[in-house]
Amino acid sequence: VRAFWRSVERYPAGANLFNDRSAGMKQAIILSGWACEMRILPDGRRQIFSFCLPGDPIEIHPMSNLGARGLVALTRLELVDAQSVAVANLEAREAVMGAIAEARQRKEDRLFDHMVRIGRLTARERVLHLLIELYDRLDAVGLVRNDGFRLPLTQEVVADALGLSIVHINRTLQQLRQDGSIGLKGGSVTLNNIGRLATLACYQPARQIVDERLRDLVA
Amino acid sequence: VRAFWRSVERYPAGANLFNDRSAGMKQAIILSGWACEMRILPDGRRQIFSFCLPGDPIEIHPMSNLGARGLVALTRLELVDAQSVAVANLEAREAVMGAIAEARQRKEDRLFDHMVRIGRLTARERVLHLLIELYDRLDAVGLVRNDGFRLPLTQEVVADALGLSIVHINRTLQQLRQDGSIGLKGGSVTLNNIGRLATLACYQPARQIVDERLRDLVA
DNA sequence: CGAGACTTTGACCGTAGTCAATTTATGTGG
DNA sequence: CCACATAAATTGACTACGGTCAAAGTCTCG
Fold first, then answer.
1. Under DSSP, is residue B19 helix (H, G, I), strand (E, B) or coil?
2. Chain A residues close to B113, C-beta within 8 Å
3. Could you tell me what percentage of chain A is helix, strand and coil, using 3-state DSSP and rounding each to the nearest 5?
4. Cβ B213 vs Cβ A70: under 8 Å
5. Sheet harboring B26-32: ordered strands across?
6. pLDDT tens per residue across all 219 residues of chain B
7. What is the pTM (predicted TM-score) of this model?
8. Could you say which of B63, B209, B214 has the minimum Cβ distance to residue A68?
């Protein structure tokens, strides 16, 4: 348990995360804070691929192998090395590793959700779809309090994730606020009638998508 | 070798690919033809996530586990089971499996390229960026003849991949043709001065992206 | 209190979408 | 090989969603 706390790493907001110790890839889990994976184009345009939330496993690549995406802290960040977690829970080691593997799978699924968002949804739908995804994920780790959660993202970050301009994100949020779909003040969001919003935004939990495809194939 | 040819499967254009034999996932390699991974929204909108070309490894999931993406044949398709390939090349088994693993890695990288395309590029850039990617991939398997290749995609499919309307794809292609950037007739494309086009479209081979990030971090 | 980051608003523009009609392949049966 | 049916590509007219530019208003935090 001592080893666990000794293996906690902290990064300030804005930090580029990469493994400077070795040439290998390091597995870690977020204890608190948000990060994102992104790429910056030569001309400055930016695309955010995914958000990494507390409880998410992340892979920290060595600089020499950065690949096509960077991992950046969006807030102050606390990580633990995945190894240490396994060691600290020797009896439940298998379960821990299994949970990490499953989280990794769900993360891949979310990449496809994100492509649908930026490829085929309207601005309104994109914003709602993203907020609902974040709601679900934060809910799973107990960070939702009566339909609301803390959203430590600037509108610029949301814009770069959703492939929209910052001004348009602002207007879309205003509109959602005005028609009562969401509440938004002081960095906290509330989703009012999340079921209805999910329908509006074509948001479907993974299982639902599967069911539907099966139905289509039968028909 | 007999076993190899006996394990070739054929599908007609438009076929939904899934494993109906077992509950497991089947690994295969495309011998000829194109496929794509995609999702259809409840209201009929469609997003194509990736194209699968000759030489690409693909995973055919069981129906009960379709997940959030469907695999669909875009042309007549010939597959071989990955197992059979390994068996037919017993001496080079390791090399074959390694190549498949690497191809899988590159496929994941391409997902991020695709997100940049639909999230942050203009219509013109999206089309060029996609064409160049296809060029590179087809070139790697010897399917490029003097700067041109066969493109068995309807404009509707391109539109659904790039998150644009079919009409706008058509206009963009016209424009690229008129200014001499590309040649396009009878299902074959030519890229004129691919280096210049790559710059215009913010297209960067993976390694180049890495180099640049390193430079940024140093700066 | 002041500096800088973030949000908000207005005016205007332009890229891309929609609708609808026409032209051009593609392919099939006779 | 031709006639017809269907899918795909193309074009025009118009719309609208979202982008850009610029300024003003808020919020944080040292």
1. strand
2. 68
3. 50, 25, 30
4. yes
5. B8-11, B77-81, B26-32, B57-60
6. 566 777 899 999 999 999 888 778 899 999 999 999 999 999 999 999 999 999 999 999 988 766 689 999 999 999 999 888 777 777 778 888 888 999 999 999 999 999 999 999 999 999 999 999 999 999 999 999 988 999 999 999 999 999 999 999 999 999 999 999 999 998 999 999 999 999 999 998 766 666 666 565 555
7. 0.93
8. B209
Q: Distance (Å, rounded) from C-alpha A174 to C-alpha A178?
A: 6
Q: Count Cβ neighbours within 10 Å for each residue of A148-164 and write b for 16 or more, e otherwise.
A: bbebebebebbbbbbbb
Question: In terms of Cα–Cα distance, which of B49, B166, B68 is closest to B115?
Answer: B49
Buried b / exposed e over A17-30, threshold 16 CB at 10 Å, is bbbeeeeeebbbbb
Cα(B52)–Cα(B29) distance, integer angstroms: 10
Q: Is A168 on the interface with B (CB under 8 A)?
A: no
Contacts of B217 (CB under 8 A, 6+ apart): A16, A18, A63
Q: In what order do the strands lie in the sheet with B46-52?
A: B16-17, B70-73, B35-40, B46-52
Sign for the CA dihedral angle at A194, A182, A153, A128 comes to: positive
Whole-angstrom distance, CA of residue A180 vs CA of residue A176:
6
d(CA A159, CA B120): 10
Token output for B31:
């011998």
Q: Shortest Cα distance from A97 to chain B (angstroms)?
A: 22
Q: Which two tokens stand for residue A198?
A: 């999910």
- CB A47, CB A163: distance < 8 Å: yes
| Chain A from 122 to 161: CB within 8 A of any B CB | none
